[in-house]
Design a protein that fits this description.
The chain has 327 residues and is an alpha/beta fold. The protein contains twelve helices and ten strands.
């Protein structure tokens, strides 16, 4: 004879088993964050990593109810901060905030002090901005074609924020490989000094991350030649792309991302990624980014890993072709 209570008992057993599994899974997933999180910014204050890190950090602080402590640790193209994070605790409480220099350094430095693809995981992509080619107002050029033509009759140089930065490599690729002209690089200690040199007539041209030059373009202090994006940008809609200026299509950017040590628990990385994506959808954050010429990136952690891996390969090829190396 069938026991009418058996289905109920079976259901209760199944429910209890499911509940036990849920509790066990929750026990294995670390709460994060339960204490202040340190953002180690790989560059000096007022640069892209610092600006984006502070905007994102403030919003995450509000979301978490935990402090996000900003600490600038610049030097060696971002390697000093990267080494410190790589050798630190893999618990998600020290986060490296760096730029696309992270993708350049493995090929640029003989020994950066870490292995980018094995010592780190990308927690998430925060923001991106194209690079911008500009000219001195008294150079007498209006377009990239003008500058290329002038370089064949007059000695010109282009400044950047430093050797191995993506604006530097972008400029090298455009002038040396696409336009096939000899316009040597003049490294500076940042985008600001490079732009000051252009305005002062010390160098003819500069290749910089767009936010550094946007206001100077609008005020007529430098002449915009081209943006290194596939499409024109909203904040400078009258500036053509490199392709529109007569060369091949270029899609080079300066980006900012969050990295953690590779052994950080995946659950912590997933939480950091999810919360970063939440912050990047905030209208106020989007507005702050747009004001300085950045766009939010976001996406899954796996997508971020693929993106950075592709960037390492892309810029490694450029570094090799140029023949750059820093011991």
């Amino acid at each position: 004879m069938l026991n009418p209570m058996r289905p109920l008992a079976t259901a209760a057993t199944t429910l209890a088993a499911a509940l036990a599994m849920t509790i066990a899974a929750a026990a294995q997933t670390p709460a994060y964050p339960t204490q202040p999180v340190r953002f180690l910014i790989a560059f000096a204050p007022a640069g892209p990593a610092d600006i984006i890190g502070r905007i994102v950090g403030l919003k995450l602080q509000q979301l978490w109810g935990q402090s996000v402590v900003i600490e600038n640790r610049g030097g060696a193209g971002g390697n000093i901060a990267a080494v410190q994070v790589a050798r630190g605790q893999a618990d998600g409480y020290t986060v490296l905030v760096t730029t696309s220099a992270f993708a350049v350094n493995p090929s640029l430095y003989k020994n950066p002090g870490y292995a980018s693809e094995t010592d780190f995981k990308v927690a998430g992509l925060a923001a991106t901005t194209p690079n911008l080619l500009v000219a001195a107002p008294d150079l007498g050029v209006k377009t990239l074609k003008d500058a290329i033509a002038l370089s064949k009759t007059k000695s010109l140089a282009f400044g950047s924020a430093g050797t191995g930065t993506t604006p530097h490599l972008s400029g090298e690729r455009i002038f040396r490989f696409l336009a096939k002209v000899d316009i040597p690089h003049a490294p500076f200690t940042g985008a600001g000094p490079a732009l000051n040199a252009v305005m002062g007539g010390h160098v003819a041209l500069a290749s910089v991350a767009m936010p550094a030059a946007t206001e100077l373009v609008k005020s007529g202090k430098v002449v915009p030649l081209a943006v290194t994006s596939a499409k024109r940008v909203e904040s400078l809609p009258d500036v053509p792309t490199v392709a529109e200026a007569g060369l091949e299509e270029v899609d080079d950017a300066t980006w900012v991302a969050l990295f953690v040590p590779a052994k950080t628990p995946q659950a912590v990385i997933d939480k950091l990624n999810a919360d970063l994506n939440t912050v990047l959808k905030d209208p106020e954050v989007k507005q702050q980014f747009a004001r300085i010429g950045f766009s939010a990136l976001g996406g899954s952690q796996a997508e971020a890993e693929r993106f950075v891996k592709a960037e390492i390969a892309k810029w490694g090829d450029v570094v090799t072709r140029i023949g750059l190396k820093i011991d």
